[in-house]
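Wait, mind explaining this?

_____
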Amino acid sequence: MTFTALHRALGLAPAPLTDDLLDAAVAAGVAEATDLDWKSELPPVKGLPQTDFPKDVAAMANSGGGVIVFGVRESQKVATERVDVGELDEAYERSLRSAAITAISPPVFGLNVYRLGAKGNRAVVVEVPASIDGHI
């Protein structure tokens, strides 16, 4: 069981992260918050430590943890539609975890990465744990 910013925004009890949950959040026009960040596409795997991904993870960890959702277009911080982010393979997932450890000081361990949706509607949710130390 998981309780994320998506569950909170929709007024739902802890439950698995599902594609239907993400669809419901988009349909409801859920707005970004300190614990929820919408991204329309995954960062490029090449040069990942130099992208905004480590900064976004550090900011979220510092503000109590939350989720970064790749595959949702937003307008003025409000979810407007799902977009396909493409395939996320094991190597890419390892790269995301590695960037959170090597590009952030102190490192952020324990990212949970969820793949949701089917081809044409794929999304990736990265659950960032709360930090006990400050990150930069």
